[in-house]
Amino acid sequence: MILKTLSVLNYKNFDSKTFNFDTKINCFVGNNGVGKTNVLDAIYHLSFGKSYFNPIAKQNIKHDEDFYVVNGDYEKHEQIEKIVVSLKKGQKKIIKRNNKIYDKLSNHIGFLPLVIISPADRDLITDGSETRRKFMDNVISQSDKVYLEALIKYNKIISQRNALLKYFALNNTYNKDTISVYNEQLDNFSAIIYKKRKQFIEVFSPIFQQKHQAITNRKEQVSLTYSSDLEQECLLNLLEQHINKDKALQYTSVGVHKDDLIFEIDQHPIKKFGSQGQQKSYLIALKLAQFEFIKQQSGDVPILLLDDIFDKLDEQRVTQLLDLVNEATFGQIFISDTHADRTERAVKQVHQSYKIFNL
Ligand SMILES: Nc1ncnc2c1ncn2[C@@H]1O[C@H](COP(=O)(O)OP(=O)(O)OP(=O)(O)O)[C@@H](O)[C@H]1O
Asked: Any idea where the domains of the chain sit in the sequence?
């Protein structure tokens, strides 16, 4: 799968710009703030229908404009695929594949597999569990539609149940039957999500270990474990046991929407006990494992976005990283960096074709 051409219109700091890409390595270089990350984010948009960096869709429209368009021409399985994501202020976002509008964004997820490595990944360590759940959901969803559907439905019912708990509190009332209907639906979808997350970690964790060893030469022991309320009991029982708490809090306090991934180094939380360098290696290993997992599951080589790559690695390690990806049957890579010369030195050593875009 190759992104041949990208055109953006009123996207963040760009008014109108077109890029024709190399099939292997593409580097965006230039000073701080010229829009290197924005180009990577536009490519991310084409795979996920949204920004990696800014969840508020309308803030991706260029200041003082009222719409944006991101257009990508891909070659996939010898077919040309035209993907267009557009948003007009006050309207719903539209995603088209070959001029046909998708009914649901979820139908597009996984069609153009992609992995991004960015300085913002540190949020995976520093933020609360939601960021780690989103990471896990992103990896599994790119190759499992049943999972994505179950997740969307589960989240919808959780919102409805929370709204009902609020309504009960506000009106000083309670109806066990209505809550039970939600509980049963949640139990059904959470069983699917829990099982698939468990299966995912069983396959993903050894890949992560292997990537971590490859980039650190086995210096320290790291682990990645899945933690869920459902380890104790099925959700139906848990919801019944926690109903008084939920009524008091006015939201659902147990379930797979509280799951977490535990990141440890030498059996201690990496957030508290990992050095900066150890945390960066952990994150890179996590992202390379994501790349490998998606490649194995989907059969497609994901596009790789390396944002501000020298933030995490020195020059020698960047070359090692590119080699690692190169070994994994080469996909297309997009790199952003402030220094044209060091980027070019690193990519030259991979002996693949490349293009440098000065922004
Ligand atoms: N909606 C928007 N409209 C106009 N400009 C925007 C919008 N959103 C972001 N920008 C601008 O985009 C620029 C940041 O772009 P980007 O993050 O891609 O820079 P960069 O080249 O990656 O920089 P760095 O090297 O510092 O990471 C900023 O100048 C910011 O003001």
From this structure: 1-113+300-359, 128-299
Our answer on whether the CB atom of 34 is closer than 6 Å to any ligand 1 atom is yes
CA torsion through residues 46, 51, 55, 57, sign: negative
37 is in an annotated binding site: yes
pTM, two decimals, is: 0.90
E strand or H helix that includes residue 188:
helix 176-216
For residue 181, what are the contacts with CB-CB under 8 A and spacing of at least 6? none
Burial class (CB in 10 A: 0-12, 13-18, 19+), 149: middle
pLDDT at residue 120 is higher than 80: yes
Q: Which is more confident, 351 or 312?
A: 351
The dotted CATH code for 128-299 is 1.20.1050.90
Q: Is-same-fold flag (1-113+300-359; 128-299)?
A: no
Shortest-distance Cα residue to atom 25 of ligand 1: 32
- Tell me the per-residue pLDDT of 143-179, one tens digit each, with 9 for 90 and over: 899 999 999 999 999 999 999 999 999 999 999 999 9
pLDDT tens digits, one per residue of 229-255: 999 899 999 999 999 999 999 999 999
How far is Cα 252 from Cα 62, in angstroms, rounded to an integer?
38
* CATH superfamily to which 1-113+300-359 belongs: P-loop containing nucleotide triphosphate hydrolases (3.40.50.300)
84: CA distance to ligand 1 center in Å? Answer: 22
The H-or-E segment that residue 337 falls in is: strand 333-337
